[in-house]
Amino acid sequence: MELSCKSEYAILALLEMATYYHSGEPMQIRQIATQQNIPDRYLEQLLATLRRGGIIKSQRGSKGGYFLAREPWKISVFDILECLEGLDVNSNEQDHKSESVDSAVIGEIWQEARQAASLVLKNYSLQDLCEKRDLRRQLDIMYYI
Predict the structure, then answer these.
(1) Which of 24, 80, 115, 118 has the fewest Cβ atoms nearer than 10 Å?
(2) What pLDDT shows up at residue 138?
(3) Domains of the chain from N-terminus onward
(4) pTM for this predicted structure
(5) Partners of residue 57 on adjacent β-strands
């Protein structure tokens, strides 16, 4: 299992929005792209997908931009990946009668692994990621002093 570039960029953009969540001001694509080093055009597509998925909202106008649709502690990493990648923990459940016993065993183990991964992703919110990032930044600063 790997994190796609698309998902990584989206999570980085959402982390940026979560950082400024309490300001109540929407963030512009250019601002997010610059801070997180994401190509503008690609970010625009990702944000459109996240908006359709209900993760973020957009505001038009001269002071327009994007902001989180819910509080950062109410958006899980699983929610984000589900929106972007279409994750479905139970998607591989098939009629096991047509499978060989070997294939059924492999399928059951793979299903168990997907469920375990989903549980981990559901347990981390954007707020948790922000806190981990801030703690790591603080430790890096302490290291250089």
Answers:
(1) 24
(2) 85
(3) 5-144 (1.10.10.10)
(4) 0.83
(5) 67
In the chain, the amino acid numbered 69 is A
Q: What pLDDT, in 10s, does the model give residues 51-70?
A: 999 999 999 988 889 999 99
Count the Cβ atoms, other than its own, within 10 Å of residue 99: 13
Rg for the chain (alpha carbons), in Å?
18
What string of H, E and C letters represents the secondary structure of the chain? Answer: CCCCHHHHHHHHHHHHHHHCHHHCCCECHHHHHHHHCCCHHHHHHHHHHHHHCCCEEEECCCCCEEEECCCHHHCEHHHHHHHHHCCCCCCCCCCHHHCCHHHHHHHHHHHHHHHHHHHHHHCCEHHHHHHHHHHHHHHHHHHHC
Query: Rounded to the nearest 10 degrees, how much is the dihedral formed by the CA atoms of 18, 24, 27, 31?
Result: -80
Q: Cα(first)–Cα(last) distance of the chain, in Å? A: 38
